[in-house]
Amino acid sequence: MIEGARWKKWVFFYIPMAFFLLFLLFPFYWMVITAVRPDGELYRPWNAVNYNPFWTTQPTWEHVRHLFEETLFATWMWNTMFIALVSTVISLVCGVFAGYALARLNFRFAGSLGTGIFITYLVPQTLLFIPLAEIIRNYRLGDTPWALILTYPTFLIPFCTWLMMGYFKAVPKELEECARIDGASRWQAMLYIIIPVAIPGILSAGIFAFTLSWNEFIYALVFVSSPEAKTVPVGVTSELIRGDVFFWGPLMAGALLGSIPVAIAYSFFVEHYVAGLTGSVKG
Amino acid sequence: MAQVVLKDINKLYGSVHAVKDVNLQISDKEFVVLVGPSGCGKTTTLRMIAGLEAISSGDISIDGHVVNDLAPRDRDIAMVFQNYALYPHMSVFDNMAFGLKMRKFDRREIAKRVKEAADILGIGELLKRKPRQLSGGQRQRVALGRAIVRHPRVFLFDEPLSNLDAKLRVQMRVELKKLHHRLGTTAVYVTHDQVEAMTLGDRVVVMKDGVVQQVGDPLDLYNRPANRFVAGFIGSPAMNFATVTIVDGSGQLTAKSGGLEIEVPAPHIERLRPHIGRQLTIGIRPEDLHIAGDADAAGLTFSSRVEVVEQLGSEVLLDVRVGDDTMVAAVDPGVRAKTQDTLRLAVNPGRLHFFDVQNEKAI
Fold it and tell me: Which residues does residue A271 pair with via DSSP β-bridges, in sequence order?
């Protein structure tokens, strides 16, 4: 913290902090206000007498109602939730085991394999979706949730593996050695000691993976086409933007409702999540 | 009941030869300390006994059975680590019970043994706490408790006291010794601290660069170091060394250097005779020097100039210059010496050590 006179605290801490907050939170505010603003206000020209972009006097649930009654929003939410959860679980299981192996088992090429896995994460999705589309078609998975559940791990597993590898490396080796002397096999030592200790790391990897798959757009856009199989990001943008007509109210209501689960996940695990990123294991 | 035998143990990491031909027999109930500077192979040796490192060549046996290929958990040993390695997500009780649970002891037996160990170590109150709620000394006790509940055949200690502050270290050292008397379990203890080695060990193994330099009981190492390294390593402050030439003056041998001229006392004469005219390293412990008085034979005294005076209360350490060499003398605390004083120091007869200049072996 900054020591000294009170004005210093204001100039160097509170005021910059306020700017940051304003800057970061404004888009969310805009989203909320647009979601509850009646169409009459939304499409009012900027030079009208009662033009007031930052506030509304007649908040309405009209757009939310539109979302649930006129579109398949509830189905999209369910799809997204299901796909994100299953692909996160798959990726976490693989990532935890692979990360442990890379961090702890001293086999040849462990280092280069780790780097290799990281590089696959760097291959852009915009490049990968073309060959993946071919695979999806060959296995007749198109237009099903499995098209996404099985393709998301292509970027989630490298990500989880890399994160978990870093975390496992920070866990003192002696914990495991001690467990093995105490009578545990390598598996038991991992199950009873290393994984419980790595929970913060696993949680942060899980939250990240969940968020990444929740927000994923390109694969969802390409591999799924029927409205009832879509995810929230694709559903909202494809059904609520018709040509050059933007249904701003329902769009923002969809964005708002779509970000709530992620926000809940973050706030619920925020402490673990910070510990996971800073990799702290206290002895 | 456990005897541990190391036979021609070697450890290679790629081209690095970390442990070379170590042979050691540890008897039942013995407390053996491996001591040496960092990187001397002592921890690697301990880890090989534990089964945490593979042995490159040689045999380790416990009670006559070769354990080379046994997993750590099948060796019936317990180890205490430098950083304690307490399981952070488990309570003290669960930490201590883990080994027993893994071995499928029944609940009542586990509770009984944990309580017993906790009582011995005075941590009965802490059983419900998590490791992070404990002080360094308490963590140390839990780590010990975790080892003793198992009633293993051998205890292995890897610098268990190095993370404690000086006062606590001394206290835990005494407790460890008591614990060993009480339990009588064979123990192998690794440390870099020669004081710990001297005070704890029934026998001490001094290692350097992966090679065992000397094995012996603490007094043996102190009084009859096998080479210059052991002589300098054991004892605090460290032994003084100077290069001298052995001169024959009609039967009486004299060790001469720039500022030193000491008549070789009788016990050494026969051993030094073959070295007349050659250079040797003379070793004198600081505590074997004192201010020369009337009782000291003139041939055992020499003149020195005081450079630094360190008053410790129980003794005074004088850093002195003798010709081109510097030495430390631990003298009576009553001595009032000042920097730049010239003092005559005397050597306790029979307390001289001589080493070969080339191979550094004791003569």
Answer: none
Report the Cα A171 to chain-centroid distance in Å.
Answer: 26
pLDDT in tens, chain B (363 residues): 689 999 999 999 988 999 999 999 999 999 999 999 988 999 999 999 999 999 999 999 999 899 999 999 999 999 999 989 999 999 999 999 999 999 999 999 999 999 999 998 989 999 999 999 999 889 999 999 999 999 999 999 999 998 888 888 998 999 899 999 999 999 999 999 999 999 999 999 999 999 999 999 999 999 999 999 999 999 889 999 999 999 887 778 888 888 888 888 888 888 888 888 889 999 999 999 999 988 888 888 899 999 999 999 999 999 999 988 899 999 998 888 889 989 999 998 888 999 999 888 998
Interface of B with A (CB under 8 A): 50-52, 71-73, 75, 77-79, 81-89, 98-99, 102-103, 131-132, 139, 146, 150
End-to-end CA distance of chain A: 28
Residue from the list B79, B88, B146 with its beta carbon closest to the beta carbon of A281? B88
Inter-residue contact B225 to B362 (CB < 8 Å): yes
Taking the model in full, what pTM does it have?
Answer: 0.81
Tell me whether A282 touches chain B (CB under 8 Å): yes
CA distance linking residue B51 with residue B73, whole number of Å: 9
What is the DSSP-derived secondary structure letter of residue B362? B
Do the interacting molecules here have an ipTM over 0.85?
Answer: no
